[in-house]
Specification:
By secondary structure, the chain is mainly β. About 5% of the residues lie in helices and about 35% in strands. It is built from one helix and 16 strands. Strand 4 and strand 5 form a beta hairpin.
């Protein structure tokens, strides 16, 4: 069972395996620009991302400005390949995507045969230049081992994420009380303008001010 808090540009997933979310997308994406060694854009270049764990293959083609985007990627390890006629193949190994990440990978192609390969390894960590969104993941080990109050409310683990503050009273965290744990401030946004998801489905209560409809017990998360 997965619980999520969406606030402004922040997504928090409490999960063992992430489910498909509607509304804000928690899956990752890869985007960027393909250029030649003079800095000119390379249109119609083929970009391929391979999930090294599942062997799933995702493809994209650059537009007239050399830009591309591969959305809806499962978090995991990827290999990115860029090919274009008249250029050597560009390969970027060990691309790690985490939940909600929009990774920016630019490729500079060198003139040569497409059978030749330029492999890029050992680069610094990727910066998220493609979006201002932020995402955080609390994995199953953290859910099992991090201390919680007597209410054992898994949503309170959201406090471990940067930029997240709970403005409500401690009594509102009591067991099975879904009435008043909506007082979350995420990255400075208003505290009653959050969307809550459970297994990808809306989990906002119909009554009250932005309350949560159902709070799962921690053992099911």
């Amino acid at each position: 069972m997965n619980g999520a808090i969406l606030g402004g540009r922040f997504l928090l997933e409490l999960c063992l395996l992430a489910a498909l979310a509607i509304g804000q997308e928690f899956r990752a994406s890869i985007g960027g620009h393909v250029l030649d060694n003079t800095g000119s854009s390379v249109p119609q270049a083929k970009v391929q991302a391979i999930n090294l764990n599942t062997k799933e293959i995702y493809n994209a083609v650059t537009d007239s400005s050399g830009s591309y985007l591969i959305p809806l990627l499962r978090p995991g390890q990827y290999k990115v390949t860029v090919t274009a006629a008249g250029f050597k193949q560009f390969v970027r190994d060990d691309v790690t995507l985490v939940i909600g990440q929009a990774a920016g990978i630019d490729a500079t192609l060198q003139v040569g045969e497409i059978t030749q390969t330029v492999e890029v390894t050992g680069e610094a960590a990727m910066l998220e230049t493609e979006t201002a969104n932020r995402a955080g993941l609390i994995d199953s080990r953290s859910v099992a081992e991090l201390p919680l109050n007597s209410g054992r409310n898994p949503f309170m683990l959201g406090l471990t994420a940067s930029g997240v503050t709970f403005r409500g009273a401690s009594i509102w965290q009591r067991p099975f009380d879904n009435g008043a744990i909506a007082e979350w401030v995420v990255n400075g946004a208003m505290q009653r303008n959050n969307e809550f998801l459970l297994d990808g489905a809306p989990n906002n209560a119909q009554m009250g001010g932005n309350n949560i409809a159902y709070v799962p017990i921690v053992e099911t998360v």
